[in-house]
Design a protein that fits this description.
The termini are far apart. Helix 3 crosses helix 4, helix 5 packs antiparallel against helix 6 and helix 7 runs parallel beside helix 8. The relative contact order is 0.10. By secondary structure, this protein is α+β, with helices and mostly antiparallel strands. The protein is built from 11 helices and 14 strands. Strands 3, 4, 5, 6, 7, 9 and 10 form a 7-stranded mixed beta sheet that branches. The mean pLDDT is 89. Strand 4 and strand 5 form a beta hairpin.
Length: 314
């Protein structure tokens, strides 16, 4: 059974957060002075309607990354630091990532073509509706992770949210087939001239092209002699991608594991020497898997490496 709005407000307050009363099935605060609202346990019941919603004030370092469109939610694990506090709803799972990031400032990213909100970095006095509230669509908000918000430096979080917004915009308006290759080359060149590292450009373009469902990302990687990383275990069964892997001689690694993306990234770093040896021994094109260490190795060592295994050799 889910908590009542009042019980949830009390819990949030005891954790050091500022609960805000919100109208039923709405995002609108039910009081006019909500930015300065500081209730006590005794007065909470006077303000929170049992049938109303509940918001939190983003203040004192608490920030919310609000992912307004499906493309942003798809790309978020590629760009955002892992978050131990996340919520969403059936129609928009993992649409809010919370962090503890002092000195962060609010930023909003819209589609310049139609004005659609893409991503918001909500800090310094914003308000976000939280579980167990009901979204205006009628869907129940669900807490997906309930830990303490991950502490993240404000400059890092701002940079990653900006890159997520850029990738989201590009994936939405990715050129049609026939012009993608030239557009991709122009973008890669522009990012490199703008001071991005080759590694960052590779990562960014991989994410954009996957989100845009464009197999040409493999074409670009193959022509540049790079190696590709993906978390898509079904890519072996996608004919267009397989053709691109073979024709353009791509070395493709699939990162395997049902753990947070930060855990997969750590395993990739710890397994780097095995990956290098695998590359030295095997000629492209191929598809290989990067596995996490098994339970025995994880118990025996504090930071064990994983292993690499060939999946498909062409």
């Amino acid at each position: 059974m889910s908590k009542s709005i009042l019980d949830a407000a009390l819990d949030y307050r005891h954790q050091g957060y500022r609960p805000i009363p919100v109208d039923k099935n709405s995002k609108k605060p039910s009081i006019s002075n909500w930015p300065s609202f500081k209730p006590t346990d005794e007065t909470l019941s006077q303000f929170f309607d049992p049938d109303g919603n509940l918001g939190l004030l983003t203040c004192e370092g608490l920030v919310d990354v609000d992912l307004d469109v499906p493309e942003a939610r798809q790309l978020a694990p590629d760009f955002l630091p892992d978050s131990s506090w996340r919520h969403g709803r059936e129609g928009a799972l993992s649409s809010h990532y919370f962090y503890q990031s002092p000195r962060c400032t609010t930023r909003k990213f819209r589609d310049p073509i139609d004005g659609t909100m893409l991503v918001e970095l909500r800090a310094d006095g914003c308000q976000t509706v939280v579980p167990p509230s009901v979204h205006p669509s009628g869907e129940q908000l669900v807490q997906e992770r309930e830990g303490v918000p991950s502490r993240t430096p404000s400059d890092q979080l701002s940079t990653q949210v900006s890159r997520l917004a850029a990738a989201t915009l590009l994936s939405i308006h990715f050129p049609k087939k026939g012009s993608r290759h030239n557009a991709t080359n122009a973008l890669v060149g522009g990012l490199l001239r703008g001071g991005w590292s080759e590694q960052d450009v590779n990562f960014f373009m991989n994410a954009v092209c996957r989100a845009a469902k464009d197999e040409e990302w493999l074409t670009v990687i193959g022509k540049r002699g790079w190696y590709a990383l993906t978390h898509d275990r079904r890519i072996r069964y996608k004919p267009n991608e397989i053709v691109s892997v073979k024709i353009f001689s791509v070395g493709l690694f699939i990162i395997v594991g049902k753990v947070p993306f930060s855990g997969l990234a750590q395993n990739f770093v710890l397994t780097h020497s095995q990956i290098r040896r695998f590359i030295d021994k095997n000629t492209r094109p191929f598809i290989a898997k990067i596995f996490r260490p098994d339970k025995t190795r994880r118990k025996a060592k504090s930071e064990p490496s994983g292993h690499v295994k060939m999946w498909v050799s062409f």
